[in-house]
Protein 1
Amino acid sequence: MLIDSHAHLDSPRYADDREAMLRRAFEAGIGAILAIGIGEEAIGMDGALTVCRQFNGQPNIPKLFASAGVYPHNASEIDVAHLAKLDSLLAEPEVIACGEIGLDYFHEGAPHEVQREGLIRQLEVAARRKRPILIHCRPKDGTMNAWDDLLEILEVHWKSTGLGGIMHCFGADYEQARRSLDLGFLISFAGNLTYPKAQPLRDVAAQLPLDGLLVETDAPWLAPAAQRGKRNEPAWVVQTAKVLAGLLGVEEEEIAAATTKNFHRLFGFGGL
Ligand SMILES: [Zn+2]
């Protein structure tokens, strides 16, 4: 069984075939999916929970979990009402994580200072609700500026909670991976690990310990190499797991077992 640790199941791009897409995932051996609740704007952060409740308990569908959070570029929208909504969502048993939150200095969006403030406010809510966090971090090309700021914020505002989290769609260097692991985070690889030009990222992945890794799709984005350009879906996380197994020199079953165990450990489950 594989777990897709990051998929936007509430995306309007699944409006016509969401159930069939989830069934395809189940048939491909995906046992669970963490649905990301950021909506297209902060107001939609309950979308993942809605999908979870719609499908959980139905046969031949992976077990669904949800997150909730405000995406870095929507950080300007964060106000008392949104933080209160986030707080009440994180109290729901299906909402096991706060995210994706973080810093994005690559795209033009919310000012960096606003992103940092928005991140810290959400860390406070997540800490109160004892929920691990899902981090999106993207620096300006050719720099590690967002990573430098992120890791400093996590050192000061998050490390002491001991809750850890996931570095979603990891794309940085070994140093950032190492520091993330030291902060109690898991490193999650998405379909970009399979891209021809991603050799530097594969070199990083090959050096990481099996007990620190997860796989994800970030669906509907980042379809793996074989389906590049298409709408992505959780069934295709298998390809990223296959590439990761090759890099670490282990069987695919071992990747599945390790990433499932890592996911359970982070979220404190005995099993699914
Ligand atoms: Zn995402």
Protein 2
Amino acid sequence: MFGDVYAGRRVFVTGHTGFKGSWLTQWLLDLGADVTGYALAPPTEPSLFEAAGIGAAEAGRAKGAGRFTDLRADVRERHPLRQALEMAAPEIVFHLAAQTLVRRSHAEPHLTYQTNVMGTVNLLEEVRALAASGRGPRAVVNVTSDKCYENLETGHAYVEGDPLGGFDPYSSSKGCSELVTAAYRRSFFGEPGMPRVATARAGNVLGGGDWGEDRILPDCVRALSAGVPIEVRNPGAVRPWQHVLESLSGYLSLGANLWRRAAAVGHEEGAFDGAWNFGPGAECNVTVREVVELFVTAWGGGEWQPAPEAAEQPHEAGLLVLDAGKAERELGWRAAWSVAEAVAAAAHWYAGFYRGARPDALLTHCRADIAAYCDAAARSGAAWATAEVPT
Ligand SMILES: NC(=O)c1ccc[n+]([C@@H]2O[C@H](COP(=O)([O-])OP(=O)(O)OC[C@H]3O[C@@H](n4cnc5c(N)ncnc54)[C@H](O)[C@@H]3O)[C@@H](O)[C@H]2O)c1
């Protein structure tokens, strides 16, 4: 998979204790990468990172799996970031660390911009310094969000060249992170010896081990595991739904292509630098109600009811659709799981947790989900999951 780029590769992941970062770290370890994670503590209790003991099962490491270094530090501080990058000397970087909650961004806009914008500046600045010393990475993938676009709520499917914006501080901070990355690419990363830098835009994802606030599946498991009806806000709202492994396969494809291209032809303007959308197909745009009902069925029963009108709600954007045509054409990436498959995989993972499964069993479950997803991607013809990886 991924043209074997990750086997034995030194990879630096910021935000590795978060929901996406935990899945990404495990997938990279299984691919044989040596992963250094850099993040604050897991943002939720419980968390996937703790529940499945991501990276901790050194004794039970799968054959061929890579090594893991777990660093806890802040992307708002340059000095520890510099030390960590110097120590890890990564060949590929994935930047996921962020303040990720829209509601919290209303309460703490300064912290949100410091983390999401200055955190990106700090990372790119330290990568630039490391590259100038000849020990820098070849590829950097900055994970932003579909919320980086100026959402005009017209139903238009956004392509990478559409204007950036963002209504609330979180969304706008992700637009800013995009602009920062583009400026660094144009101003500094065109030089020989500098890395190729891309940004990845995906929408909200679901999967086992997410306990984030204001996300529908965590709301479902909290209610069902407590034996109370799920309170559903906006049951009729249509949203694009995607399993977390879909967006991660996009990030990993992008990282592998950036790295291989730089290795093959040295530094040149063009291919794989820039912005990439990783969105689900139109058949994955379904209502919140449909997803809740799929979840209840996969869980084995339960009730839901519309949430009472809250007095004050932050602005909630209408349907935002990504056009992932560029990733399909140029990376051979495509979404592989239906909404029903994605929700069922998540429900089974959570059911294991709430039945008291131990960390090693939950980790095995993560690995089984990754393997099942890879099979589905190979059947769908995704280039990274077949033998015919373009070079
Ligand atoms: N989950 C989604 O649906 C979704 C959708 C689109 C984009 N994203 C983006 O993907 C990335 C990961 O999202 P997630 O859902 O895993 O988020 P998460 O909230 O679960 O995890 C965030 C991670 O960032 C770390 N972090 C936060 N502030 C930090 C700081 N100051 N210094 C160092 N680390 C810090 C946390 O410790 C954690 O590891 C984020 O950049 C997010 O904006 C997520």
